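Input/output pair, single chain:
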Amino acid sequence: MKYVLAGASGFLGKALARDLVADGHQVLRLVRRPPSTPDELRWDPARGELDASGLGDPDVLVNLAGANIGRPWTPTYRNTIRESRVSTTETLAAVSGQLERRPVLITQSGIGGYGLDRGDSILTEDSELGDAFLSDVVRLWEGALEPARAAGSRVAALRTGVVLDRNAQAFQLLSLPFRLGLGGRLGPGTQYFPVVSLTDWVRSVRFVAEHDTISGPVNVTLPVPATNNEFTEALATALHRPTFFPVPSFVMKTVLGEFAWELIGSKRAVPTRLESGGFTFHHPTVAAAISAALA
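Output:
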């Protein structure tokens, strides 16, 4: 199969491209600079510019582009977060409708779309989105797929939890206090903390691409939701470290602002569409996912 990747230079993009190429698939990477290799094609999503003829005849378009959400959300940066996701998806959606054979269009989305704190409620893909900033981003992000859907492409939006891998920045930040012997739960610890192993995230993308019955929102999280307490205990056990230093919610809110809710808000999301489609996780529990990340 031929895949076109936007955001191929990021952590997830590199992992997906590496896995696809290893299995003999063709990968075309979209870049915003002059191409340096034959497997690159320049585009300018801010201007909606992408030469459809340069794509050839792709089977799958994957959008993993988007500004990092793990930094202060100033008014200016909020716009950057939003536009970096919406403009890239809009550009790919428009181009997919110009191709003679309609490709599958998959975009990364966010589990944060469900809102700040949903308590113990089980969140499937049919659950309503919330009313926080990232909820609005997800609405626009996933809504940008509509032109492709209307043109006849199958589209899917991956509502992904925190991806666990030793090279992932988020996992490095989460594990650093434990490595220093200063680890502990975040906030109350009873909140559900949606995560997934990198291996299962890559497998999920490919599964969605290859199975025509899956479309729309797709939760990419552990099938056995874990609380932050459970995540903390599993990480401490894997690293052979204590868990003596919990971080109170008010400290996180003071330091991280609204982004703190991504860590202390509860989102008990389950991957209903993946499992209904026949997907099985290699790392279904938080302990297994952490072990895989540290391997």
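The chain has a mean pLDDT of 95. The longest helix spans residues 75-96.
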